[in-house]
Amino acid sequence: MNRVALLMYHIVDRPLSQAEARFCCAPARFEAHMRHLAEYGLAVSLEDLHHALVGRGQLPTDAVAVTFDDGFAATFEHALPILKRYRIPATMFIVSGRIGGYNDWMTPRGFPTRPLVTKQQIVAMRDAGLTIGSHTRNHPRLPGLPAQNLLEEISGSRADLEGVLAERVNHFAYPFGQYDIDSREMVKASGYSTACSTRAGFNNAEVGRFDLRRLEVYGWDSLWRLRQKMKYGRNESSVTFPAAYYLSRARIRLGF
């Protein structure tokens, strides 16, 4: 199986404060990213990746899947038309207990209040070809939660979303990218097909379906920075990294 990069976006909008600048990708910048994926035929769905991981399909070289965490209404407003324009499959992970509400797990840490998608918007995304995934009910930190709380957050969220969509919800993303053995096993037991972390790197046959890696797209990531992330499988980017990378490889080959 060829390596696959998962891109993780949060908010497609201009930042409302410095605190959220890292998480906000301006619509024009997001469009440049999606245009690039479309031009090179790189975009695949999370379902395509799942099929490849279980041996039921093949993916193109350097395939990329697009994901969004949290379900911000601004992302629905700005990203959906772009995704449709360039025919990019994508997955949005929804906090099911906050549908039609706001990001109250973020505001105590100084982030501005932002509305989240409604049930009608979730259905509209599904009807437009996007995949809807679960991001728990309340966006808690999963490691250390008692079993009953894990069940409510992980399995309960799936039930909530399936009630909205009247179809199976197969994909999950760990809040804050944090998980332990108990939470991962609960994701499996709840019937999901995959689960996404926030660990950087590529995905291939050696990466478990419930430990998928993603590359975080920062608000300041221009197209060259995004391309570098997709090439090297790391979150950070710089103009000097490629030269340092190849110099290091040359030294290893030469025995230095």
How does this model look, in words?
- The two termini are 32 Å apart.
- The mean pLDDT is 95.
- Helix 6 (181-189) links the parallel strand 8 and strand 9.
- With 256 residues, the chain is of the alpha/beta class.
- It is globular.
- The longest helix is centred in the middle third of the chain and has 19 residues, at 147-165.
- It has a single domain (4-254), classed as TIM Barrel (Alpha-Beta Barrel).
- It is built from 8 helices and 10 strands.
- The strands form 3 sheets. Strands 1, 4, 5, 6, 7 and 10 form a 6-stranded parallel β-sheet that branches. A two-stranded parallel ribbon has the order 2-3. The protein has a two-stranded parallel ribbon with strand order 8-9.
- 39% of the residues are buried.
Helix/strand layout:
Layout lengths: L3 E6 L1 E2 L11 E2 L1 H13 L3 E2 L1 H8 L9 E8 L2 H14 L3 E5 L24 H9 L3 E4 L12 H19 L5 E3 L7 H9 L4 E3 L18 E2 L6 H10 L8 H14 L2
Parallel strand pairs: 1-5, 1-10, 2-3, 4-5, 5-6, 6-7, 8-9
Helix pairs in contact: 1-3, 5-6
Strand content: 5-15%
CATH class: Alpha Beta
On the 0 to 100 scale, the average pLDDT is 95
Number of domains: 1
Notable characteristics:
alpha/beta; two-stranded parallel sheet; 256 residues; 14% strand
Brief synopsis:
The protein is an alpha/beta fold and 256 residues long. Helices cover 38% and strands 14% of the residues.
